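Need GlcNAc-PI de-N-acetylase's 3D structure for a figure. Predict it.
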Amino acid sequence: MVYVASLFTCESRALFVAAHPDDETLMSGGLMATLADRGVDVSLICATRGEQGSIFGETGDVSSVRVSEIGCAAQALGVRRFCFLGEGFAKRANLPDRFYEDSGLQDAPSHTGRTLLSSFLEAVDDLMHAITELRPQIVVTHNQYGGYGHRDHVAVHNAVRQAVRNVANADMSLWVASTEPYGGQSDGQPDFVCDSMFLVKLAALRCYKSQFRILHTNSKRAKIQVVSGEGYSVPDLEAYRCIA
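Structure prediction for GlcNAc-PI de-N-acetylase:
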């Protein structure tokens, strides 16, 4: 295993793609902060606004709350540019903005709108435009299991993998999170690990007041409580596999 902080210079560019607000911080907050601290140009795309989720200790529109929170987290992590999939730098040229809906948890009713599952090829096109414009050396996203199996996480993995394959840039590699919180499923022995900038990751987690209560922390992990009441441990160590 290699500690990722030694791999990059300030000329490097990295693109992170997550399914919902807070996924980026739980999955890769330490790596984003570490790369940004080294001067790497870090970009973030979030596929949905997480509007099917619940909010904890907040009132108001779920989507608006979570949009505000991910903006706070991106700033805390040192992200240079951020947008949602289907807008800004993450949409195919000459098209109006488009909105990808949060499909909800596995037992949620099916959706008739534009989700990542129903609009997969559109999502791939939007991601290809972002990759072509940003020219990242690494792209980081969910693993093939979607961590704990959320269908939007799996769809994001598949769309990112297809977009990277279509762009076919020999100077670009695709990394996936080997483990994630919430009892996520690993897809094998990691190639790279990151255990730095945990305090910055915690600062980003604190942006998500509608999603978490941080119960206690030390230098190596945080215990959080989520909206549904379950408690989870968020370690300082993030692990990644290079799959392309």
